[in-house]
Protein backbone atom coordinates (compact mmCIF):
# COMPACT_ATOMS: atom_id res chain seq x y z
CA UNK A 1 0.00 0.00 0.00
CA UNK A 2 1.35 3.43 -0.93
CA UNK A 3 1.47 6.37 1.48
CA UNK A 4 -1.43 8.05 -0.34
CA UNK A 5 -3.53 4.90 -0.14
CA UNK A 6 -2.78 4.44 3.54
CA UNK A 7 -3.63 8.07 4.26
CA UNK A 8 -7.20 7.53 3.08
CA UNK A 9 -7.74 4.02 4.40
CA UNK A 10 -11.01 3.98 6.29
CA UNK A 11 -12.53 6.99 4.53
CA UNK A 12 -16.31 6.63 4.33
CA UNK A 13 -17.91 6.73 0.88
CA UNK A 14 -21.63 7.12 0.25
CA UNK A 15 -22.57 5.33 -3.00
CA UNK A 16 -25.88 6.57 -4.41
CA UNK A 17 -26.92 4.27 -7.24
CA UNK A 18 -30.33 2.75 -8.00
CA UNK A 19 -29.00 -0.10 -10.18
CA UNK A 20 -28.16 -2.82 -7.65
CA UNK A 21 -25.61 -4.56 -9.87
CA UNK A 22 -23.59 -1.35 -10.29
CA UNK A 23 -23.89 -0.47 -6.60
CA UNK A 24 -22.67 -3.95 -5.64
CA UNK A 25 -19.64 -3.74 -7.94
CA UNK A 26 -18.70 -0.33 -6.56
CA UNK A 27 -19.16 -1.46 -2.96
CA UNK A 28 -17.08 -4.63 -3.40
CA UNK A 29 -14.23 -2.75 -5.08
CA UNK A 30 -14.19 0.10 -2.59
CA UNK A 31 -14.28 -2.24 0.41
CA UNK A 32 -11.45 -4.26 -1.11
CA UNK A 33 -9.44 -1.03 -1.14
CA UNK A 34 -10.30 -0.46 2.55
CA UNK A 35 -12.94 2.23 2.19
CA UNK A 36 -15.99 2.17 4.43
CA UNK A 37 -19.04 2.02 2.14
CA UNK A 38 -22.71 2.92 2.53
CA UNK A 39 -25.22 2.37 -0.26
CA UNK A 40 -28.38 4.32 -1.02
CA UNK A 41 -30.71 3.81 -3.98
CA UNK A 42 -32.72 7.02 -3.68
CA UNK A 43 -32.30 10.69 -2.78
CA UNK A 44 -34.25 10.17 0.44
CA UNK A 45 -32.08 7.27 1.57
CA UNK A 46 -28.92 9.20 0.72
CA UNK A 47 -29.92 12.25 2.76
CA UNK A 48 -30.78 10.07 5.74
CA UNK A 49 -27.47 8.16 5.58
CA UNK A 50 -25.43 11.32 5.09
CA UNK A 51 -27.03 12.95 8.10
CA UNK A 52 -26.44 9.93 10.30
CA UNK A 53 -22.90 8.94 9.29
CA UNK A 54 -21.21 12.06 7.81
CA UNK A 55 -19.31 10.45 4.90
CA UNK A 56 -16.02 11.81 3.54
CA UNK A 57 -17.06 11.39 -0.10
CA UNK A 58 -20.14 10.64 -2.20
CA UNK A 59 -20.34 8.81 -5.53
CA UNK A 60 -23.61 10.04 -7.02
CA UNK A 61 -25.56 8.68 -9.96
CA UNK A 62 -27.10 11.64 -11.80
CA UNK A 63 -30.40 9.91 -12.63
CA UNK A 64 -32.21 8.60 -9.54
CA UNK A 65 -35.78 7.31 -9.19
CA UNK A 66 -36.91 10.10 -6.87
CA UNK A 67 -34.80 13.02 -8.03
CA UNK A 68 -31.72 14.44 -9.72
CA UNK A 69 -28.30 13.44 -8.41
CA UNK A 70 -26.97 16.94 -9.08
CA UNK A 71 -29.65 18.46 -6.86
CA UNK A 72 -28.76 15.88 -4.23
CA UNK A 73 -25.12 16.87 -4.57
CA UNK A 74 -25.99 20.53 -3.98
CA UNK A 75 -27.94 19.61 -0.86
CA UNK A 76 -25.14 17.42 0.49
CA UNK A 77 -22.54 20.10 -0.22
CA UNK A 78 -24.71 22.74 1.48
CA UNK A 79 -24.82 20.56 4.59
CA UNK A 80 -21.15 19.57 4.41
CA UNK A 81 -18.94 22.03 2.45
CA UNK A 82 -15.93 19.71 2.82
CA UNK A 83 -17.70 16.64 1.37
CA UNK A 84 -16.04 15.29 -1.77
CA UNK A 85 -18.54 14.87 -4.65
CA UNK A 86 -17.96 12.58 -7.63
CA UNK A 87 -20.76 12.18 -10.16
CA UNK A 88 -21.26 8.92 -12.07
CA UNK A 89 -23.36 9.38 -15.17
CA UNK A 90 -24.20 7.89 -18.55
CA UNK A 91 -24.48 11.44 -19.92
CA UNK A 92 -21.30 12.71 -21.56
CA UNK A 93 -22.50 15.87 -23.31
CA UNK A 94 -20.25 18.88 -22.55
CA UNK A 95 -23.14 20.81 -20.98
CA UNK A 96 -23.84 17.93 -18.58
CA UNK A 97 -20.17 17.67 -17.61
CA UNK A 98 -19.79 21.41 -17.05
CA UNK A 99 -22.97 21.43 -14.97
CA UNK A 100 -21.68 18.65 -12.74
CA UNK A 101 -18.26 20.25 -12.31
CA UNK A 102 -19.86 23.55 -11.35
CA UNK A 103 -20.02 22.37 -7.74
CA UNK A 104 -18.70 18.80 -7.77
CA UNK A 105 -15.10 17.61 -7.73
CA UNK A 106 -15.04 15.08 -10.57
CA UNK A 107 -17.27 13.07 -12.88
CA UNK A 108 -17.05 9.56 -14.31
CA UNK A 109 -19.03 8.37 -17.30
CA UNK A 110 -20.67 4.96 -17.65
CA UNK A 111 -19.58 2.38 -18.55
CA UNK A 112 -16.59 2.87 -16.27
CA UNK A 113 -13.43 1.00 -15.31
CA UNK A 114 -13.61 0.19 -11.60
CA UNK A 115 -9.88 0.79 -11.11
CA UNK A 116 -10.32 4.27 -12.57
CA UNK A 117 -13.19 4.96 -10.15
CA UNK A 118 -10.99 4.03 -7.18
CA UNK A 119 -8.06 6.08 -8.49
CA UNK A 120 -10.20 9.14 -9.20
CA UNK A 121 -11.86 8.90 -5.78
CA UNK A 122 -8.47 8.76 -4.08
CA UNK A 123 -7.33 11.76 -6.09
CA UNK A 124 -10.37 13.77 -4.98
CA UNK A 125 -9.84 12.76 -1.34
CA UNK A 126 -6.21 13.88 -1.54
CA UNK A 127 -7.54 17.34 -2.36
CA UNK A 128 -10.44 17.42 0.09
CA UNK A 129 -9.13 15.29 2.99
CA UNK A 130 -5.36 15.88 3.00
CA UNK A 131 -3.34 13.69 5.33
CA UNK A 132 -0.72 16.33 6.08
CA UNK A 133 -2.94 19.01 7.65
CA UNK A 134 -0.99 20.74 10.39
CA UNK A 135 -2.56 22.50 13.39
CA UNK A 136 -1.36 25.86 12.09
CA UNK A 137 0.20 26.90 8.81
CA UNK A 138 1.08 30.39 7.63
CA UNK A 139 -1.35 31.79 5.06
CA UNK A 140 -0.44 31.96 1.39
CA UNK A 141 -0.57 35.49 -0.03
CA UNK A 142 -0.50 36.91 -3.51
CA UNK A 143 -1.47 40.53 -3.98
CA UNK A 144 -4.76 41.09 -2.17
CA UNK A 145 -5.43 37.33 -2.11
CA UNK A 146 -4.98 35.27 1.06
CA UNK A 147 -5.37 31.50 1.43
CA UNK A 148 -5.63 30.15 4.98
CA UNK A 149 -3.82 26.80 4.97
CA UNK A 150 -5.37 25.77 8.29
CA UNK A 151 -9.05 26.37 7.53
CA UNK A 152 -8.80 26.16 3.72
CA UNK A 153 -10.62 29.47 3.41
CA UNK A 154 -9.90 32.19 0.84
CA UNK A 155 -10.20 35.98 1.07
CA UNK A 156 -9.66 38.67 -1.51
CA UNK A 157 -9.36 42.27 -0.34
CA UNK A 158 -10.66 41.05 3.01
CA UNK A 159 -13.81 39.49 1.54
CA UNK A 160 -14.54 35.75 1.65
CA UNK A 161 -14.38 33.78 -1.60
CA UNK A 162 -16.48 30.60 -1.47
CA UNK A 163 -14.60 27.84 -3.33
CA UNK A 164 -15.12 24.11 -3.79
CA UNK A 165 -12.23 21.87 -2.66
CA UNK A 166 -11.02 21.44 -6.25
CA UNK A 167 -11.20 25.18 -6.95
CA UNK A 168 -9.19 25.77 -3.78
CA UNK A 169 -6.56 23.19 -4.81
CA UNK A 170 -6.21 24.80 -8.25
CA UNK A 171 -5.91 28.33 -6.85
CA UNK A 172 -3.41 27.20 -4.21
CA UNK A 173 -1.19 25.66 -6.88
CA UNK A 174 -1.30 28.86 -8.95
CA UNK A 175 -0.48 30.97 -5.87
CA UNK A 176 2.43 28.72 -4.95
CA UNK A 177 3.81 29.25 -8.43
CA UNK A 178 3.53 33.03 -8.12
CA UNK A 179 3.52 34.85 -11.43
CA UNK A 180 4.84 31.87 -13.39
CA UNK A 181 2.76 30.38 -16.21
CA UNK A 182 1.89 26.80 -15.24
CA UNK A 183 1.37 24.41 -18.16
CA UNK A 184 -2.03 22.73 -18.39
CA UNK A 185 -0.41 19.28 -18.18
CA UNK A 186 1.24 20.22 -14.89
CA UNK A 187 -2.07 21.40 -13.46
CA UNK A 188 -3.73 18.12 -14.43
CA UNK A 189 -0.91 16.17 -12.81
CA UNK A 190 -0.68 18.11 -9.54
CA UNK A 191 -4.30 19.18 -8.97
CA UNK A 192 -6.26 16.31 -10.55
CA UNK A 193 -3.56 13.64 -10.06
CA UNK A 194 -3.76 12.54 -13.70
CA UNK A 195 -0.68 10.55 -14.68
CA UNK A 196 -1.56 10.92 -18.34
CA UNK A 197 -3.41 13.87 -19.84
CA UNK A 198 -6.92 12.72 -20.85
CA UNK A 199 -7.50 13.39 -24.55
CA UNK A 200 -9.67 16.41 -25.28
CA UNK A 201 -9.86 17.23 -21.55
CA UNK A 202 -11.37 20.62 -20.77
CA UNK A 203 -11.50 20.25 -17.00
CA UNK A 204 -8.73 22.83 -16.44
CA UNK A 205 -10.41 25.42 -18.65
CA UNK A 206 -13.71 24.80 -16.89
CA UNK A 207 -12.30 25.33 -13.42
CA UNK A 208 -10.25 28.35 -14.49
CA UNK A 209 -13.50 29.94 -15.66
CA UNK A 210 -15.12 29.21 -12.27
CA UNK A 211 -12.19 30.81 -10.43
CA UNK A 212 -12.23 33.86 -12.67
CA UNK A 213 -15.93 34.38 -12.11
CA UNK A 214 -15.50 34.30 -8.33
CA UNK A 215 -12.24 36.24 -8.03
CA UNK A 216 -12.98 38.91 -10.63
CA UNK A 217 -16.19 39.82 -8.81
CA UNK A 218 -14.00 41.22 -6.00
CA UNK A 219 -11.27 43.03 -7.92
CA UNK A 220 -9.24 43.32 -11.13
CA UNK A 221 -8.68 40.14 -13.18
CA UNK A 222 -6.02 37.94 -11.56
CA UNK A 223 -5.66 34.86 -13.77
CA UNK A 224 -3.78 35.19 -17.03
CA UNK A 225 -3.83 32.79 -19.98
CA UNK A 226 -0.87 31.92 -22.18
CA UNK A 227 -2.71 30.41 -25.12
CA UNK A 228 -1.54 26.92 -25.91
CA UNK A 229 0.63 26.81 -22.77
CA UNK A 230 -1.22 27.29 -19.49
CA UNK A 231 -2.26 29.72 -16.76
CA UNK A 232 -0.78 31.95 -14.09
CA UNK A 233 -1.51 34.88 -11.79
CA UNK A 234 -1.11 38.48 -12.93
UniProtKB/TrEMBL annotation:
<feature type="DNA-binding region" description="OmpR/PhoB-type">
    <location>
        <begin position="137"/>
        <end position="234"/>
    </location>
</feature>
<feature type="modified residue" description="4-aspartylphosphate">
    <location>
        <position position="61"/>
    </location>
</feature>
<dbReference type="InterPro" id="IPR036388">
    <property type="entry name" value="WH-like_DNA-bd_sf"/>
</dbReference>
<dbReference type="InterPro" id="IPR001789">
    <property type="entry name" value="Sig_transdc_resp-reg_receiver"/>
</dbReference>
<protein>
    <submittedName>
        <fullName>Response regulator transcription factor</fullName>
    </submittedName>
</protein>
<dbReference type="Pfam" id="PF00072">
    <property type="entry name" value="Response_reg"/>
</dbReference>
<dbReference type="InterPro" id="IPR039420">
    <property type="entry name" value="WalR-like"/>
</dbReference>
<feature type="domain" description="OmpR/PhoB-type">
    <location>
        <begin position="137"/>
        <end position="234"/>
    </location>
</feature>
<dbReference type="InterPro" id="IPR001867">
    <property type="entry name" value="OmpR/PhoB-type_DNA-bd"/>
</dbReference>
<keyword id="KW-0238">DNA-binding</keyword>
<dbReference type="Pfam" id="PF00486">
    <property type="entry name" value="Trans_reg_C"/>
</dbReference>
<keyword id="KW-0597">Phosphoprotein</keyword>
<dbReference type="InterPro" id="IPR011006">
    <property type="entry name" value="CheY-like_superfamily"/>
</dbReference>
<feature type="domain" description="Response regulatory">
    <location>
        <begin position="12"/>
        <end position="125"/>
    </location>
</feature>
Amino acid sequence: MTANEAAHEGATVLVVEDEESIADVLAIALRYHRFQVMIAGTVREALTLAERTRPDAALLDVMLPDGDGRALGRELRARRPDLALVFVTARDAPAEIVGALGFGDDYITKPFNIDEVVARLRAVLRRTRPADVLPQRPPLRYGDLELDETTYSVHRAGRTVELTPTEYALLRFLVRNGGRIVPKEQLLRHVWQYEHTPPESTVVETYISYLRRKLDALGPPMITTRRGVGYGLA
